Amino acid sequence: LPARPRGWRAPQRHDAHGRRVFLCTAKGYPHEPESPPDPMSVVVSLLIALAVAVALVLGSRLWFDRVQKRAHEQRIGIEVLDARRWREAHDLLVQALGQEGYAQAAEVTGPSGMPLAERHLSRGASRVLLIYKHGTSYHIGAAALLDAERRRQEAELDEVLIATLGSLDRDALAQAERMKITCLDGPMVWSRVKPVLDTAAREGVATEAEALVERPRRLAGIGAAVLGLGIVVWGGGLNDLPWDAGSAPEPRPSAAPR
């Protein structure tokens, strides 16, 4: 046998005849047999691992259904509105604002009698000037706010509402609040126009957004399931269970000489 460590003593036991015995492994060193894992701790670990695995799968699906799909719908919806004529998109916005309590009072025309992308609305006792800027490239900044305020004063109205399919300058947002100007960017316009959009266009946007997230969602679900299975096996303590008792080295008793 290999040399024993200094000061080491073999654990002793007694058999049915009162003789001292010790257990030897394949390496030759006597040791105490390892105790099997606690069944209750294995069950608790398994339940926790299963909960984590289920959370991974559900979280992956919710991410694509609630976040990614909504982002795709918003982008595609803005593109759909941008592809339409400005007059049609303008009318849809006025219709959507009507559900928020705005009533159309008058349509603004230019010097030649052509309609402009402006409307006079009313909300209660307040008279509102609606200015619509068509296109996703438009950017509402400080200059647009000053121009809108000038138009409001010329029309002798109470409030201004600027809407565009483009973007909004965050630095100008505080200035708009001080000037009592309401600004709507592309995502805000889409969220209001979506309910009043025709059914075919609304379903087409949803179908295209679903097609964009279907494959990534499926792959992410498979990956989450595989990762969850690994957590169940290794984190749940299943690898510590004696699946094949015959492969483990059996301790062999050896009687020590008296």
Number of helices: 6
Described by strand count, sense and barrel closure, the largest sheet is: 5 strands, mixed
Instruction: Name the beta content range.
Output: 15-25%
Tell me, rounded to a whole number, the average pLDDT: 79
Strands, total number: 10
Q: What percent of residues adopt helix (DSSP H or I)?
A: 40-55%
Strand order of the largest sheet: 3-4-5-7-9
Uncertain segments are: none
Based on CA inertia axes, which overall geometry fits? Answer: elongated
Q: What does this entry look like structurally?
A:
The chain is an alpha/beta fold and 258 residues long. The longest helix is centred in the first third of the chain and has 45 residues. The two termini are 20 Å apart.
Q: Concise description?
A:
49% of the residues lie in helices and 19% in strands. With 258 residues, it is an alpha/beta fold.
